[in-house]
Amino acid sequence: MISIQQQSVQLKVVFRGRLEFGSQRAYDMVLKHWNSRVDTYFRSDVLFTAEEIFSEEGFLLTVPQQTLMSSQKRWRSTTALLYEVAQYALAGNVGAWWVLNGKVLDQHTIEPKTDKIAVTEYLRGCELVQQGGMEQASEALTNAIEKYERNALAYERRGYVNYKLKNYNDALYDFNKSIAIYAHNPEPFFGRGKVNMLKNEWDAAILDFQNTIDRSLAVQPIYWLARLRKADCLFHAKNYLVAIKELKLFLQRSFSDNDPNIRFRPKAEFLLAECEKMSK
After folding, report:
1. Beta bridge partner(s), residue 61
2. What CATH number did the domain enclosing 150 receive?
3. Is the distance from CB of 107 to CB of 99 less than 8 angstroms?
4. Residues 6+ apart with CB under 8 A from 51
């Protein structure tokens, strides 16, 4: 819950992501919608101009990762308009975080939720992943990709499914495809790093986890999961001193009760003790 005091001050907001509209017609419609809503309703309360984020080449809306200062009104207006235009998209998402002193006050994953098959099959696949229905999830995600082949998120999710099914070559293919389409998401690098760990390719895995860190925020669990994985790889690569630095950063972090990193603290403590022993 955001307090009255927090509503009256300028807070730090972070945006990052991309939406893909897939055709000239959809792109023209979404750009018209954006401009109309800004002119008639939102006016100066939106943090981005159309010129900053829309690109006719590729029919895209792209928000490079950036940190801005915003009032609560501008934050709400910007996220509301992004939700509206996301419904014209075939794929992609935009992440938005409102942060105060390293804590997330509000966050959004803005993505299309329409009856287009590319969208419905992607969402169905993600839901099946959460339920553990990996075979069915793979089928749904493949359907989404067949309807829109530039769906980087669908490739990443299918890569995760293939990883869980131990189809590691297929997982590697999917993670590479996701990265080739849009190289600013942290998740496919994290997935590829795990595959490289299984192959004992420590240097490649370290690079993947560093790319994950570079593309995520410290308020996201994946940021710290990648730091721990990177430290694990550094340990196996016998780079103990750098591993110690990563592990100390991980162990100094205070995680919330629902953060998946909490359960990995014992592993981090064990690795730190091993690294310190081996570095002497």
Report:
1. 19, 54
2. 1.25.40.10
3. no
4. none
145/209 same-domain check: no
First to last CA, the chain: 49
In angstroms, how far apart are the furthest CA atoms of the chain?
68
Residues 161-184: tens digit of each pLDDT: 999 999 999 999 999 999 999 999
Question: Is 162:174 a contact under the CB 8 Å cutoff?
Answer: yes
pLDDT in tens, 204-216: 999 999 999 999 9
Alpha-helical runs (H) found in the chain: 4-7, 24-37, 50-53, 72-86, 117-131, 134-147, 152-164, 168-181, 187-198, 202-214, 221-236, 240-252, 265-279
Range of the domain at 148: 115-185
Instruction: Measure the CA–CA gap between 87 and 21, rounded to whole angstroms.
Output: 9
Assign 35 to helix, strand or coil.
helix
Place of tokens 């819950």: 1
> From residue 56, how far is each of 59, 89, 265 by CA, in Å?
5, 14, 46
20-67 pLDDT per residue, tens: 999 999 999 999 999 999 999 998 999 999 999 999 999 999 999 999
pTM over 0.90: yes
Quote the CA–CA distance of 236 and 258 in Å, as a whole number.
29
Report the run of H or E that residue 70 belongs to, with start and end.
strand 60-70
Please tell me whether residues 129 and 90 are part of one structural domain: no
- Distances in Å between the Cα of 7 and the Cα atoms of 15, 72, 76, 110 are 19, 6, 11, 22
Do 159 and 79 share a structural domain? Answer: no
How many Å apart are CA 129 and CA 113, to the nearest integer? 17
Q: Cα dist. 21→118, 173, 215 in Å?
A: 11, 24, 23
pLDDT value of position 257: 87
